[in-house]
Design goal:
By secondary structure, the chain is of the alpha+beta class. Helices cover 33% and strands 31% of the residues.
Amino acid sequence: MKYLLTGEETQRLHFRLVTKDDFNTWLPLFKEDKVDLFLGMPTGLSQIEQCEFWFNKVFHRYDNGLGGMNALIDKRTGEFIGQSGLLVQTVEDEERLEIGYSILPKYWGKGFAQEAAIKCKTFCFEQEFSTNLISMMHTDNIGSEIVAIKNGMTFEKKVNTFNVYSITREMWLNQKK
C-alpha cells in the first residue's frame, strides 16, 4: 500500500486507513453545496449515493496500489475530522502524484487541511516517491486553492474545470533552507 500515510502524525492529527465504519461520520460532507463538483464526482446522486461513490473510490485505490486517502483523527479528541493522502492521478495522459484533502464541514477554517497537506508533501518528498507533486481543485473551490498556495505550490495549468497547482522536490528543499 505504497503512498499511504498510515500511522503518520502531525502536531494535531493521526493518519489511519479509512474503514467502512467511517461511513456515517463522513456522510455530512455530502450535505454541502457543490461537494460533488469540487470532488469530481457524478452529479445528481443522493447524499448516501455520493458517500458510497466516495468510499468505493477510496477502497479501489487501496486495493489497486493507487495511493489513497487516510482518515484524519484529531489526536486530542479522537474525532474523525477528514481525509487526506497521496493519490495517483492521470492528468492529460500523464501519471502524477496528487495531495488530496477533504475536511468535514464542522472543522473547516481550523487549519486541518493545511496541516495534513504539508505532512503529505513532506512524506512524499522524504520517501522520494516523486520529484513533483500536484493538488487539483475545482476552479470554484477557493478554500482548497488557498491550502495549495500555503503548501508552497504554484499554479501550473487549468485542466477542464480544475486548477492544477504543483511543487517540485527541488522547490521544497529550497523552501526548507
